[in-house]
Structures are given as structure tokens and as C-alpha cells.
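forwarding from the other thread:

> can someone predict this with copper (II) ion?

sure thing
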Amino acid sequence: MTRRYDLIIRDALLIDGSGAGARRGDLAVEGDRIAALGDLSAAAGEREIQAAGRVLAPGFIDAHTHDDHAVLCGPECMTCKLSQGVTTVVTGNCGISLAPARMTKRPPAPLDLVGGTEAWAYPSFADYAERLRRNPPAVNTYALIGHMSLRVEAMDHDIERPATDKEAARMKERLTEALSQGGSGFSTGLWYPPSRHAPTDEVIAVAEALRDHGGLYVTHMRDEGDGVLDSIEETLKIGRDTGSAVVISHLKCMLPQNFGRSAEALARIDEAVKAQKVGFDVYPYPAGSTALMPDRVSANLPIQISSSEPHPEMAGRMLNDIAAEWGVDPVEAAKRLLPAAAIYFFMHEDDVRRILAHPRSMIGSDGIPSNDMPHPRLWGTFPRVLGHYARELGLITLEQAVHKMTGLTAGVFGMKDRGVLREGAFADLVLFDPETVIDTATFTMPKTPAKGIVEVWVNGVSAYREGEGVTGASAGRLVTRQAA
Ligand code: ZN
Ligand code: CU
């Protein structure tokens, strides 16, 4: 009797996520799992797809997102990720997480990047996890707990200072609770004004909660410019002192005087991995994006406004042009645009490429879904790495590119049975055309879907088809860290 599966994808180029070379073969799905791989000519599927010439890979894992609120807004909200082949997002980055937090008023920037006052409705992580169970998202969600969110609560909104020992103990308690309810790690954004006031000791005192849970420490470092090496040292120390694996978010060297220093940064990380667990992610663009901060503005740094509450019509325009039109200097213009978000052109392409090419870099978009004219990384990151950096430039092989989006990331974050094509693993899958896959989102047209992503499955359910968009399926789950 012929074996019948729910789905068979035939004659694909299977790239398994481990970095190993592609091989031709079939793959069968039964329920939410990969049921078989190899030559399945003797089996049949309820649905069969002829995939000749196309790549079948594990669904991509977005190592760095601010999708905490977006995952709860329905499948349409996740078109930006599903259209890139992303099936799992890591939320709660840069010290900003929607849970657990009790916000009694509008949170200070950059916390508002994930949503205004009404979005902050999860006093405990259990509430957030319950919401994900009741209204499953279209993609899997893996959540970090943000230091800034904990600070606002423990310090009663008075966060422009170091926490007292008592407040730090309160944050540690809240972090412990959240980790026991399905949170997977702790993130900081020490570069941001409200967190700059937190000394290393405060971070360590809170991060102590990670020790018993084997949680991950993930950080937007204190300084990605002149002090980038000191910041790497601080990160490594926090990891060592708390017995935690660390992930450096969006590794970069910003501002012209630091261009080229990615070589030193990577060398230091290569040295450190001999003694402790260190990972890092990167997005494939020489511009960053975050809240607009007037004290970080200067006339010779190109800044593009991505959203402004009082002046939504300025989204997409350059700050210097707005300032000229208003007859004020750029700092004053920035102040008038607040609350606002912006794109900063402050990196060198050579550093971006050096970090992308490093065997340990994972791919994370760092996209900000709430922006009107977002950085194109929100819609373009993954196909850009596959199409531009791997195929067009040959910076890395296609298999290496896939590994940075799947197996490597699943390993660093401890996502069991994901990021791999293997019998018994979850059927998070992406089928794409290696000859045509490419990003189309640009700084002037940032919300356009990738080309060449043919179909995407989340836990065995078809979630996106090219030309048709999201299917409306909501098969995503809360994924938690299984420490090695
Ligand atoms: Zn960040
Ligand atoms: Cu971020």
C-alpha cells in the first residue's frame, strides 16, 4: 500500500540549514512535522508540489525583531516577514518588550517603538503567552524580556538614573517570573538614553535571574561607535559573571572615525568564543533605524524620517531638507518632529560585508513595523542576503546564507527541532527560486514584498504564497529556549 502524507514537495534542492551542500530530493509533511526526506517516489501526498529547480529550506528565523505587538495583529501584519520566508521571530530586543510591564502612562522613547499606551496590556509574561495561545500569530514567536520595560515598572517611570539595589532586586524577581512563564532570555539597550544610566553592576544584578534558567543575554550594546570594543568587553563580562550565553545585537561600527573597526571587533569575538558562548546578528544595510533622538543629530549625518506623530507628512524625507524648509537647524527640526523615528546612514558597506561574511553572524532584520516609512530591512532583509549578497556578489554561498537564517540561529537561541530539515523536526519551510529571489524594498519604497519566495509553511500549514499573499493561517506558537 502506498504511504499517504499530507504534503509532498518533490524534486527540490534541499538545503537543510546546517551549512551542508544542497541535494536533490523529496520532502513529506504529516501534521506539523517533517515526516520523511529523500526519494519518496513510492509515496503519495494529499497535496503534491513539483519543485524542480527550487530550493526547499527550513523557514527562516528572524534573530532580531520588534514584532512584540505586530504578531498579535493578525496574519496581514506579518506579511512583511512571511513574504521573506520568515517563520519564527525573536521579539523583545534592545531592552524593549511588551511583557511584563504595567504602563500607567505613555512609555518613554524608544519603548514606544513597539506600540503606544494601549499596546501595553500584559502585566505578566503569562498574560502575553496566554494571548499568543488564544490568538495564535501567523509566525512562531520566541520572546526576550526587556530591561527597559522592567526598569519603567520597577522604578515607577523615573528611569534617568541608576536603579537602587532594591529596584534591581525587583527587576530580577520579575525576570525570574517571566522566564518561568515562557520568556527565553533578557535583553538590554544600553545605548538608549533611559538605559545609559544603568551601570554594568545593575545589569548583572538583574541578569543573575538567567543563571537558573539557562537564559540568554542579548544586548544592543552601550556604544557601537568609538567605544565598541569596550562595549564588547562589557557584554562578555555580563555573560561570564552570570554564566550566560550572550548575543550581540546588530553588530556594527558606526560613524566615519570607526569605519573598518569590524575587523578588531570580530577578532575579539573569535578570541572570546574559545572561553564562553557568544553569538551576534547583523542586518544587510549600511543604515540603522530607531527613535529620532535630537541629541544624536548632526548636520553631516544623513537622517531620513520614518515616522513623526505631529508631522506624519514628513515620513520619508531627509531631516536636513525639513530643517531647511522650516528655516531652523536640524536639532530644532528633530525636536519639532517628536515623537518620531528615523533612519541613520552611519555605517560603511565594507563593515557590513565583513560582518555578514563571518561564519558566526546570524541574520536579524531589526525592522520596526510601527513606522510609516520603515527602513527597508523590515521587508527586505532575508531575500537581500540570499539574492544580493550570496547570488549577485558571491560574498557567501547560498548554503551559508541559509545557515545564518536557520540552523545557526536555532542553535544559538536553543530552538529545538527548528531551523533544520530533518525527519521529526517541525515543518517550518520555505520554497524559493534561487535564480530570482531578491528584495525589492528600498529607502524610498520600503513596503514591497520580495520576489522569488514561492511558498511558506509554519508548523506544516501553508501561510504565504507568492502572488496571493498570506493565506490567513495562524499556525504560529510560542517557542521557548531549550538550553544545551
Ligand atoms: Zn537595537
Ligand atoms: Cu532592535
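Residues 387 and 438 are 5 Å apart (CA to CA). thats all i got for now
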